[in-house]
From TrEMBL:
This is Regulatory protein MarR. GO terms for molecular function: DNA-binding transcription factor activity. InterPro entries: ArsR-like_HTH (IPR011991), HTH_MarR-typ (IPR000835), WH-like_DNA-bd_sf (IPR036388), WH_DNA-bd_sf (IPR036390). Pfam families: MarR. CDD domains: HTH_ARSR. Coiled coil: none annotated. The lineage of its organism: Bacteria, Bacillati, Actinomycetota, Actinomycetes, Frankiales. SUPFAM superfamilies: Winged helix' DNA-binding domain. It comes from the Bacteria. Residues 1-137 form the HTH marR-type domain. It comes from Pseudofrankia inefficax (strain DSM 45817 / CECT 9037 / DDB 130130 / EuI1c).
Amino acid sequence: MDRPTHLIEYEGMLLGRYAHLSARGGQRPGGLERSAYILLSRIRMQGPMSLGQLSEAFGLDVSTLHRQTAAMRREGLVERIADPDGGMARKFRITAEGARRLDRQRADIIAGIDRVVEDWTAEEVAAFAAFLKRFNAGIERRSGRPWPRPADGPPADG
């Protein structure tokens, strides 16, 4: 590992591994699968979304998203609604159960992060968050797929 980018790659791989383990919800009955957690988070931030919008946002095939959203519908996490803007495509909206489970899982993940950084200063935590945001924004800019972010505090339901 002769360049800093090599270390970023390696540490990013490890972070993805840990994030996957915590986002799976495996420790708690009723925990969300990683794909459901991410999809629910996006729908919450953006509001109701069609399969086409989800496909564009994630860069995934519609058939993949159809399977994922069908599983989420069976679990009562999302519901299909008419487009609130009057469009032809039906959209997915988070249900009360989906919001409850997303909030619970997010709280579990945040509690885990709090434990990891408990011996960090508030400034170190804020700096790390700022660097992660900047790194993610760079990825989003290069991919052409920006992710909406809350202005302040946790995102509202969509």
